[in-house]
Amino acid sequence: MKKTIKVLCAILSICFVTIILASCTTKQKVSVKFLNYDGSELYAYSLKKGTDAVYDKALPVKQATIENEYTFAGWDKPLTSINEDTTFNAVFTSSKRKYDIVFKNYDGSILQENLIEYGSLPVYSGVTPTKPQTNEYTYNFSGWDNVVVSVSGNAVYTATYSNTKISYEVKFYNAGTLLESSNFEYGSLPVYSGVTPTKESTVEFDYVFSGWNPSIKTVTEEASYTAVFEIVARKYSISFKNYDGSILQVSEVEYGTLPVYSGTTPTKDPLSISEAYTFSGWSPSVVNVTGDAEYTATFSVTVRTYTITFVNDDGSILQASEVEYGTFPVYSGLEPVKENTNTAIYTFIGWDNVIINVVGDAVYTAVYSSEIRLYTITFLDYDTSVLGTFNLEYGDLPSIAEPSRGSTMQYDYTF
Known about the structure:
Elements: H1 2-26, E1 29-35, E2 41-48, E3 68-75, E4 86-96, E5 98-104, E6 110-117, E7 137-144, E8 155-165, E9 167-174, E10 177-185, E11 205-213, E12 223-233, E13 235-241, E14 247-254, E15 275-283, E16 293-303, E17 305-311, E18 317-324, E19 344-351, E20 362-372, E21 374-380, E22 386-393
């Protein structure tokens, strides 16, 4: 029992000494914390009381806003002679944030670039932007693609331009003579508004305006056009007249061609029953066209002819011919015929009038004699043997004795 008590006492003595030593040790240490601006812990440790705190970690940072940037400036308390538990808070200084403000030309080339503080109004201080003209347009600077506003971030402003169509001088000529000169906008189609160009005719040709050389096209530059003419063979008035001056034909005929009269053959009334006029040509002689011309019909005197007609008794023409005055008409056709009927046979015997020498138009009609028509009537017996033959006129009644046929052993026969 005594031994146990001694052991317990020894253990208690050791514990007491340990507690005293621990108490003495705690009083010699202090704890320090390093916090960021938002209270988040950056670093913590214990150090010997009275010594300086040391922060040897990554420097605290504070996230920039669109307006400000933040720079670590230290801690809110000194780090020297720390005698008690201490919390250090990171301290930051702020500065206005700057943004890249770029002014560009239409082609993307940079005209001006500056870093400008948040909230400031950018000012372009360079030379006025330009854009080279094309064949179609001239360009004038008209501002920026967006309204320039106070800085709130990086920004790019691009020059914009108004355009004006370029006009070009277009000239119209006729054989080297200026007819008209006007300005037309690029891309428009030039229009000639002057008097239609002309070219003086020659005896052989007329000239008709047919357009321009080169062909008119939309404006892309200054241009000149020259009148072009179609060559047309010149036509002249050619008249054909009868002997009395009456117009038979008038037509327009090309230079160099031979006029052709296409009307009915000219005529001239005869002076007597024996004489006639026959068209013999033109006066003067028809020649290739070199100008307006008139031609008059000429006639020769000939023996007058008349129409002599031979007709059948039904009015059909057998022969018609022109026969000179005083000559004897001759019928040269086939002998006229008249179709026989059941009752009659017809024979041509001449003409209704005596044919005489021609003194005018005449018609001769065929004349026929007629006779009653005969028919042959034949009677045949049963065995085709001829019982009798008779020639009788149309309308007569034929008669013959009644025929008979002998009996056989088997039959008797009755007509």
